[in-house]
Amino acid sequence: MEKFEQTFEDYMSEVCQKNPDPSHDILHVKRVVNIAKKLAAQEKANLKIVVPAAYLHDCVYISKTDTRRKMASKISADRAVELLTHWSYPKEFLPAIHHAILAHSFSAKIDAVSLEAKIVQDADRLDAMGATGIFRCFAFSGLAQRPLYRAQDPFCENRSPDDRDNTLDHFFTKLLHLQDKLNTPSARAEGELRLQTMTIYLNDLRRELEGLN
Fold it and tell me: Which residues have a Cβ under 8 Å from the Cβ of 151 and sit 6 or more positions away?
């Protein structure tokens, strides 16, 4: 597996170097891999499926603002199978790896069926939560040139959130709901800690913004 892992990492390093989005850089890939390995150990999942799926889950980068966004996980899953075949990875694991990559995406809304797919999905979602998730949220919004928040009703108390409009709304459209969508007990335990981090941040932000009025 070590030989394959180096191949995966080298390939993804090249992909990420061409990608302008700091929230989907090689550090994101490595974090997802490390989280997935930890969850796999705790849940007794097959690393021969989890590891390549975690490395290659975004092997074709498609921006969240791209019209193909809902198809992004399928595009990456198909490409991953092509790459793994070229690298002579054991063929018996390819269908399960394809499903794990296909199901990882929040936008695709595809149920993760296998334990390994649930773990890859959980790992990617955990990296969108907590202090790291806050980092990534604002990094992408800077790239997308979105305002930080809406001056009127920034915390969506009397309106529906729209994260295409501003950064803060992304917490209310997605990030605060990820905890309810985690699959495994191990991921839910970690997710609870990360949810608390985001909640504390938002409470502090509310206090600061309300202090300006």
Answer: none
The domain in which residue 121 lies consists of 2-210
Q: What is the pLDDT of residues 172-195, one digit of tens each?
A: 999 999 999 999 999 999 999 999
Q: The tokens 């997802």 sit on which residue?
A: 32
Alpha helices in 61-129 (DSSP H): 72-86, 94-104, 115-126
Listed in sequence order, the residues at least 6 apart from 121 whose beta carbon sits closer than 8 Å to its beta carbon are 100, 103, 104, 112, 183
Residue 110 identity (one-letter amino acid): I
Question: How far apart (Å, rounded) are the C-alpha atoms in residues 35 and 122?
Answer: 9
Does pLDDT of 213 surpass 70? no
Residue 72: pLDDT band (50, 70, 90) is confident
CATH number at residue 166: 1.10.3210.50
